Amino acid sequence: MIVRPPANWARMLFVWHGSVLPAILPQLALILVVAVAALLGHGSVFGERVPLDTAPFSLLGISLAIFLAFRNNASYQRYLEARQLWGGVLIAARNLASQVHAYVPAGAIDRAGVTLRLAAFAHLLRHQLRGTDPHADLARLLPPCDATALAARAYRPVALLDGLRRMAQRAVPDRHVLWMLEAQIDKLSEAVGGCERIAGTPIPYPYGVLLHRTIYAYCFLLPFGLVHNIGAATPPIAVLVAYTLFALEAIAQEIGEPFGTAPNALALDAICVTIERSVMELAGRPLPCEAVPGPDFLLR
Questions:
Q1: Mean pLDDT of 101-107
Q2: Which long-range contacts (C-beta less than 8 Å, at least 24 apart) are formed by 196-203?
Q3: How far is CA 232 from the centre of its chain?
């Protein structure tokens, strides 16, 4: 995820990091070549004039705009729901850590162990969603025996929550306090399920294929429809239209996979560090270093 200071209008025109322009430059270059060829050939291919004007592009452009709007709205809804789920993880982890320290006697439960397990839970969920190796975070936060046991599980965040639930059941005789703790663990479990649903249910593949093919067909044919009306202005206008369409498709693809590592996906590393710092502070333990953007304002 790109995190940057507020930008004025001039900086927004030339911003590079966080823009999808680097990803679509090859496509724009290809459209520029096609547009120049259409201009030099006066709208002909192998000596045959392509009988196109701007009318069909106006009709197809309206349909394409509606379809792109649907695709981007669907992607943004996934991104927003994913961010809300991770916000729920932060809140529930804080509440559980606070309740354990406030309502459970120090000798009845391993408070430090609960805190470390909550921090490990966030990292385990991140690794599960991204398909990355959790061993470094497990070794850093948990005892070797617990880290080894969790590493052998298929659904590590769920296994860790199950362990927390069993710890609470053994340590808390008061049913009201146990109910409070169970409620927070349930919220963490619901967040895991919500994230798994988003990660395991992408936007239907045919939508992406249809949109991708239509955009390319539109952009390849557009110069032949413009060349007889605007002449030498065909290449820049065709590239500008292609930039809009390709960029919208690329943005939808990036935010439609909110748990990935694309520049505009969720900054899960930074969110996990925030959760870890929050629960460690409640437990009075040393805080890990805060996640800060690098020189290119990038947070993963």
A1: 87
A2: 196/129, 198/78, 198/81, 198/82, 198/85, 198/258, 198/259, 199/129, 199/259, 202/256, 202/257, 203/71, 203/74, 203/75, 203/78, 203/256
A3: 41
CA dihedral in degrees (199, 204, 206, 211; nearest 10)? Answer: -80
pTM: 0.88
- Among 75-79, 124-128, 226-230, 257-261, which stretch is predicted with the lowest mean pLDDT? 226-230
- 231 sits in the region (left: phi over 0; alpha: psi -120 to 50; else beta) called left
163 Cα distance to chain centroid: 29
Packed helices 55-103 and 268-282: angle between N→C axes, nearest 10 degrees: 20
What CA–CA distance (Å, rounded) separates 219 from 242?
6
Quick: pLDDT tens for 45-96: 777 777 777 778 888 888 888 889 999 999 999 999 999 999 999 999 999 9
Total count of residues recorded for the chain? 300
Structural domain spans, the chain:
84-203+264-294
* 173 phi, psi to nearest 5 deg: -80, -25
Q: Which two tokens stand for residue 25?
A: 């430059």
Helix/strand/coil (H, E, C) string of 219-277? HHHHHHHHHHHHHHHHHHHHHHHHHHHHHHHHHHHHHCCCCCCCCCCCCHHHHHHHHHH
